[in-house]
């Protein structure tokens, strides 16, 4: 479970002060898939980085499976898998297998566990033919598959994904969506941002909408459809922004 309570994050320079998150509170229940919606610059990535302990909130609290992101960051890191947009975190001079082995070692997997995990992920994402090639030679889609594999190789309880299907072709995107459903069946807690509304509707139990650092809606999709009298999620989102609502 992820719990955010009155979280604010401000970035200050000599010339400007920017409030990226403004008193945001919401919960991602254990075993649920929640979609994070918002236009570019709304604060989605900042929110995910705060949960991942990469950024410290200016105020407010965040707990992940009961651990504080500010007081117990190491415990939080053991529980999560993270993928941020184009930041694959891969080493170009290493092969895909070497990259995955490296990250598996960081998470304390044994040699046998690492070998089994890499083989399963290679089959799942169709990576076997280039598993032993250097990542620096890969296309964007190929890199993204390895990055997603890196994110879940240690079987984390909680998974944070920022635009996870960026660069993937249709087949790979469908494989990814099936993987999300499988992870949900395993009881994983997943929070991911996406601009693809069809993806959100197909995968998510609920959504959190953020606009200019403020939460404008959090709840189940069915309740949102009933409230807005339509199942056009893109229309609902744009409508809420136009109305300037806050949760």
Task: Describe this protein's structure.
It is a single chain. This protein has one domain (2-88, 157-243): Rossmann fold. It is an alpha/beta fold. The longest helix has 16 residues, at 170-185. The chain has a six-stranded mixed sheet, with helices on both faces. Strands 2-1-4-5 form a four-stranded antiparallel sheet, with helices on one face. It is globular. Helix content is 38%, strand content 26%.
Keywords:
single chain; Rossmann fold; six-stranded mixed sheet; 10 strands; 38% helix; globular; transport; ABC transporter ATP-binding protein NatA; P-loop_NTPase
Sheet with most strands: strand arrangement: 6-7-8-3-9-10
The major sheet is characterized as: 6 strands, mixed
Q: In the residues, how many domains can be counted?
A: 1
Q: In CATH, what is the class? A: Alpha Beta
- The H-and-E topology, N to C, reads as EEEHEEHEHHHEHEHEEHH
The mean pLDDT is 90
What is the CA–CA distance across the termini? Answer: 20 Å
Please work out how many helical segments DSSP would assign.
9
Apparent shape: globular
Looking at the overall shape, the CATH architecture is: 3-Layer(aba) Sandwich
Q: From the alpha-carbon coordinates, what is the Rg to the nearest angstrom?
A: 18 Å
Low-confidence residue ranges? none
Task: Determine the CATH topology.
Answer: Rossmann fold
Q: TL;DR?
A:
The chain is built from nine helices and ten strands. With 247 residues, the chain is α/β, with parallel strands linked by helices.
């Amino acid at each position: 479970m992820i719990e955010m309570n009155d979280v604010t994050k401000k970035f200050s320079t000599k010339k400007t002060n920017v409030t990226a998150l403004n008193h945001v509170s919401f919960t991602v229940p254990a075993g649920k898939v929640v979609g994070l919606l918002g236009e570019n610059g709304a604060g989605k990535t900042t929110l995910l980085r705060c949960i991942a302990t990469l950024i410290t909130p200016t105020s407010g609290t965040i707990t992940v499976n009961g651990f504080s992101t500010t007081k117990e960051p190491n415990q939080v890191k053991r529980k999560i898998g993270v993928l941020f947009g184009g930041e694959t975190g891969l080493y170009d001079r290493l092969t895909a297998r070497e990259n995955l082995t490296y990250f598996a070692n960081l998470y304390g997997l044994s040699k046998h566990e690492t070998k089994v995990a890499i083989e399963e992920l290679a089959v799942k994402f169709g990576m076997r033919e280039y598993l032993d090639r250097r990542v620096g030679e890969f296309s964007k889609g190929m890199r993204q598959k390895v990055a997603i594999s890196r994110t879940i190789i240690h079987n984390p309880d909680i998974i944070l994904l920022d635009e996870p299907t960026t660069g993937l072709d249709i087949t790979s995107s469908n494989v990814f969506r099936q993987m999300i459903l499988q992870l949900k069946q395993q009881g994983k807690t997943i929070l991911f941002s996406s601009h693809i509304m069809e993806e959100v509707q197909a995968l998510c139990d609920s959504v959190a909408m953020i606009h200019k650092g403020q939460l404008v809606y959090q709840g189940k999709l069915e309740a949102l459809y009933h409230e807005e009298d339509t199942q056009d999620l893109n229309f609902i989102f744009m409508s809420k922004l136009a109305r300037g609502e806050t949760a």
